[in-house]
Design goal:
- The protein is mainly α and 45 residues long.
- The chain has two helices and no strands.
- It has one domain.
- The longest helix has 19 residues.
């Protein structure tokens, strides 16, 4: 999977999290050293 597609998939997954776990759940993101600083900035936007 190319970087842009993987990033879109990650963002969709994180956005869906609160709906699945409820408002009191927390979400942690672990990129396994796969994110550069620029990718993290895009992810957080």
């Amino acid at each position: 999977m190319d970087t842009e597609s993987g990033l879109r998939c990650d963002v969709e997954f994180v956005r869906a999290g609160p709906h699945a776990i409820g408002p009191d759940g927390g979400i942690l993101v672990d990129a396994n050293n796969g994110y550069t600083l620029n990718i993290v900035k895009t992810f957080l936007e």
